[in-house]
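W.,

You were right to be curious about this one. When I first looked at the sequence I had no strong expectations either way, so I just let the prediction run and decided to look at it fresh. Below is the sequence, 294 residues in total, followed by the output.
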Amino acid sequence: MTQLEMMGANAKQAARVLMNAGAKKDEALLSIAQALRDNAAAIIAANEKDIENGKAAGLTPSLLDRLKLDESRIAGMAEGVTQVAAQPDPIGRILEGRTLKNGLQIEKITVPMGVIGIIYEARPNVTSDAAALCLKAGSAVILRGGKEAINSNKAIAAVMRDAIERAGLPRDCVALVEDTSRQSATELMQLSEYLDVLIPRGGAGLIKSVVANAKVPVIETGVGNCHVYVDKTAEQTSSTTPKPRVPRCATPSKPFWYTRTSRSRRFPLSRRRSTKRTWSCAAVSARAPFWATA
């Protein structure tokens, strides 16, 4: 059994405890939030190593800014965990139900996913964000961040695991893959015996790689939106307004989020109409927890 398989087995056991944790999940989240505040100095010290390594590797100023942690950003991470704890429990909600003629009652109820794997890039704040959302959803999580933030991620994960244990839950509810090689990423994508779902969070290249290589179910996230703003003082005659790129549904074959706004079909020439079929993606908040559509 490899180290990652052992991590998956431990996460599987922790998930069985976590799925029935109830209010203890919120206690663990609040414990994490306080631990992040209390250990800010140690996290910043670890982050400084990543910053130095990033400068030596030639990371751009924008990437270094994403990587950097300070007191205010760690306070924001802690506040984010606190806000997740304040949300209603997503587990056990009855989404719909009906009673058959023979008296049998059928209900659709939200349940934990089990063990969630999350692969992300050089944003250390994602470590606490992702762990908090998974804990709230009653699922254990295996995190695999980018090599640029490995020291920060290790410090944050250690703080969270200790805080979870102090709250009375298994520390393996949250695990971090410390091996940042491509082999570890590939192995995580194929950990079908232990992972119930895999979520990539990052650029188009990362998402494409995970979707192409994973042997476990994948929740494919969006690659983000780019917006252009033209100031009122700009010279409109000397500027070119770019054509907006409208996000499309994957295919007009009735994906679960589609809405059909009009319909047409081809007619003989004598009956031809000027009609068309259009498709649009339903609006989904980018900040909504992933369990919102579970």
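Here's what jumped out at me. The beta strands are 94-99, 105-109, 115-120, 140-144, 174-176, 197-201, 258-262, 278-281. And, maybe more interesting for your project: The longest strand covers residues 94-99.

Coffee later to discuss?

I.
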